[in-house]
Design brief:
Cytochrome_c_Oxidase_Subunit; globular; Cytochrome Bc1 Complex, Chain D, domain 2; 2 domains; mainly alpha; single chain; 223 residues; electron transfer activity
Length: 223
């Protein structure tokens, strides 16, 4: 994992900012973050969570965590800013993020998005995935699986590095996050027929083996 030196750099670099946004920018967040945010409520409004809370959810410098905290580091700043703006407006679901993003100004959103877009910490360390899963995931990411499953990189760009504000970078995402996120999309597809070509529609075509393979490959692919 990333050492204390990187954590100290993060604290020093962001201390002057409102750091509420560091808790999220994705719909998956750890329970301890919600507890920490609630514990810091004040009479005048919600106090921005501490750097320690943010790092607990997303890893030092936004690297992500092996338990499923999504990676923020290196993502397109327009994508990060747009996601945070949606949390602020309540148009993207996340009880934690909607709470902590509520009082962020547009300039704070942009500053935080820019900061994370410039970070390049190592991939999170965990038990290495099975090589057979990585090989299968590479095939899925680059070539897809027949006419029903498009290649991941056809939308998320070569190497999974992301494509502007709409398609986020997916390379380097922790496997646990990828699995959980795809399952979320599948749950949405069961509630309402998804529009063709959306991530919800694509996820609905995947089986568990394909999800595990894609997650394994992306988790070991440098952004």
């Amino acid at each position: 994992m990333i050492g204390s030196r990187s954590v100290n750099m993060l604290r020093a670099g962001l201390r002057p900012l409102s750091v509420a946004a560091l808790v999220g920018l994705a719909s998956t967040c750890h329970a301890q973050s919600a507890v920490a945010v609630n514990a810091q409520d004040t009479a005048g409004g919600t106090k921005a969570p501490s750097i320690a809370t943010c790092v607990a959810c997303h890893g030092a410098l936004g690297a992500g965590t092996v338990t499923g905290g999504p990676r923020l580091a290196g993502k397109d700043p327009d994508y990060l800013a747009h996601a945070l703006s949606m949390f602020k407006a309540g148009t993207r679901a996340s009880a934690v993020m909607q709470t902590v993003a509520h009082n962020l100004s547009d300039s704070e959103i942009r500053e935080l998005a820019t900061f994370f877009s410039k970070q390049n910490p190592p991939l999170v360390e965990g038990a290495p995935p099975q090589q057979s899963l990585v090989v299968a995931g590479k095939q899925l990411a680059e070539m897809g699986a027949g006419s029903g499953v498009p290649a991941c990189f056809s939308c998320h760009a070569a190497g999974g590095k992301g494509n502007g504000a709409r398609f986020p970078g997916i390379a380097g995402e922790p496997a646990a996050f990828v699995v959980a996120r795809l399952h979320e999309f599948q749950a949405r597809a069961k509630e309402k027929t998804p529009a063709p070509g959306t991530m919800t529609a694509v996820a609905a075509t995947l089986n568990d083996a394909q999800i595990e393979a894609a997650a394994a490959y992306l988790s070991v692919t440098r952004p």
